[in-house]
Amino acid sequence: MTRLQTPPEGISQEALAGLVTEAVQQTLMQHGVLLDAQALVSASVLAGSVAAALPFLPPAQRHAIDSLKADWTVLISEFFRTVPDRIASGNPMLSDQASGRAPPGAGRLQNIAERAAGLQSMLLEDWAGEVAGSTYLEEKLRIPRSTLHRWQRRGEVVALRKGGRKHVFPLAQFVDGRPVLGISDVLSAIANPRLAWFWLTRPAPELNGRVPIEMLRDDMVADVVHAARAVS
Questions:
Q1: Does some domain include residue 1?
Q2: Does residue 182 lie within any of the structural domains?
Q3: Is residue 6 part of a domain?
Q4: Which residues have a Cβ under 8 Å from the Cβ of 21 and sit 6 or more positions away?
Q5: What's the structural domain count of the chain?
Q6: Do 130 and 217 share a structural domain?
Q7: Among 16, 105, 111, 202, whose CB has the most other CB atoms within 10 angstroms?
Q8: What is the pLDDT of residue 108?
Q9: Is the distance from CB of 216 to CB of 183 less than 8 angstroms?
Q10: What is the pLDDT of residue 125?
Q11: Do 153 and 204 sit in the same domain of this protein?
Q12: Which of 212, 138, 137, 200 is nearest to 169 (CA)?
């Protein structure tokens, strides 16, 4: 099977690479692996390219790879140590990588990744505003823990990881003891809660400089959701 052939599912290698690239990028962001924007895109593109290449290899080659018991991390690290020399020597196999090309979908999250570049090193209190744990919310806002955790599981409330497994909840998202309408839609568009809250609490160029969370509190849900989908 060659590069130009398609597997039984009827998807091309290029399209498959784009899908995997986007999935890997979303996963890295969801788990707080906030690299700089270019590194995030590059890591996702590489993972997508590798995963998409395997189904298009002849069976004998796939079997040989499956039977390889080597340390993949070591092999991949060794490969990348040779890449600068190959680029310098004008290796045509690396020309697309050197020029920054990526499969379809690779750049879809780049703009929002650029906004996240500094979040990893910032203290939560420095950028998220007032936050509180489940005990405070139960005592002060009368939100039962079971209800809060249900909202969290369903993606209806922004929960920010602090420390190990502890989560805190930004207070600005609550009105009358409930998350404002539109939070779940924003989290669907921007899957990383830290990045979603960062976007919600900053003036958004997509909204003519208005702050999305303030607009949600004013029931301007449609405009905010549309903007969130645009930036993601």
A1: no
A2: yes
A3: no
A4: 44, 45, 47, 48, 49, 102, 103, 105, 106
A5: 2
A6: yes
A7: 16
A8: 42
A9: yes
A10: 76
A11: yes
A12: 137
pLDDT at 161: 87
- φ and ψ of 201, to 5 deg: -105, 10
* pTM of structure: 0.53
| 190, 224 Cβ separation under 8 angstroms | no
C-alpha distances in angstroms, 216 versus 99, 142, 178, 206? 41, 22, 13, 15
Name the residue with tokens 């788990």.
31
- pLDDT at site 163: 73
Mean pLDDT (10-residue bins), the chain, 232 residues: 47 67 69 59 71 66 55 57 57 48 46 59 80 94 95 95 85 95 95 90 91 96 94 78
Q: Which two tokens stand for residue 213?
A: 């969370």
For residue 82, report the phi and psi dihedrals to the nearest 5 degrees: -90, -15
Domain that holds residue 161: 122-231
**Phi and psi dihedrals of 158, rounded to 5?**
-80, 120
The two three-digit tokens of residue 104, written as one number: 């379809």
Say if 4 falls within a structural domain: no
CA distance 182 to 194: 16
Predicted local distance difference test score (pLDDT) of residue 107: 47
